[in-house]
């Protein structure tokens, strides 16, 4: 059928009501958002953002309401979608922006694709990877993997992806979203090593929309975290309190979930796998820890400073 591109949509969307089908690849995926309120009677008040791209550039796509439970888990990073009967809206200005792996990619930020059950009822098809043709010109998923030795040189809030062998995982903890609110964030601390430094990655992992992964992070698993943000305390001793925290678009993968993921082709991931083959499992097991209270960043040594 006649396809359109994201670039053409941006130029012509105001003058059209019906749009030609789109063929895009998912490059980023946000966590699922629940926006239900007691006074609003919505059956499934869910929303999820995706960043999708074709040969012309990248645009946001929003999955609404009952389409979320139906499609959210199937739309993985790297999935190719054929979209028909979608709507185009001006973009929501306050949403979070993931950092694209390809800095040269053009970004269409004024509009977003809206997928709904009605007005119009969107038709979504997933194209299996083996049927994707090179002539469609769809971009590959690119990553920004860093090693532990590179971390100390990175600025605050820098976006990166990491892979490591888990040596510590803390218990799940809760933090209030707002001072006196009823809602909590759920998170846990983890340490992962990659052989490039004596220090581990210190990871603050908030529960994303992947409970099956979040609950099963164990020592000795290979952990991949994407779209992490660098947090460094710029006040006292910057190197001692550098850690990574999840963002709205972070994805977490553990042993058993890596097969077929786009990052398996990345050079730094391959280097890490080579390094793990040189390690003795028994030696690493002795150094692993699980659970317990993990105060971080650590409080100062004496009370006066505190």
Automatic annotation (TrEMBL):
SUPFAM superfamilies: Nucleic acid-binding proteins. Coiled coil: none annotated. InterPro entries: NA-bd_OB-fold (IPR012340), RADX (IPR040893). One of its GO terms (molecular function) is single-stranded DNA binding. This is RADX protein.
